[in-house]
Input
Amino acid sequence: MTDYHFVTIWKYAAPVEKIWPILNDAEKWPSWWKGVRKVETLQPGDANGIGRLQRFTWRSQLPYNLVFDTRVVRVVPLKEIEGEASGELTGKGVWHLSQAGSITTMQYNWDIATTKAWMNILAPIARPFFSWNHDVVMHWGGEGLAKLLGTPLIE
Output
């Protein structure tokens, strides 16, 4: 397996109370996040979403799909969602949300490893392309959320 560490930051002139329910409803991500093909809830989890298990199908700029499951393991309402991934990617992702004045900052830390044999074989030469691809998909998400919120993504 090949390990990757990604950090993505999105900022919006919108209250965290408006952003949180959109982020927390991953089944609707395909409606606003280009690249998210499908999200299926396999187990609903508790009232806060802890234990929720969802299968994500992603299609990126590069011509391949990734399918992996994410189980929510920790939720701090309006502040944090942590999930553990398994399948074609394994690892941990954490969304951190904070608000300062009228600006909400969303930071996503994604620490994963690839499990597809071809990705691991090509990793020594393809790592920069996989990283670029991740950045493109995350940019699509940032722009899609901005459009949904009706406010620009602050660079």
Remarks:
- The mean pLDDT is 95.
- DSSP finds two helices and seven strands in the chain.
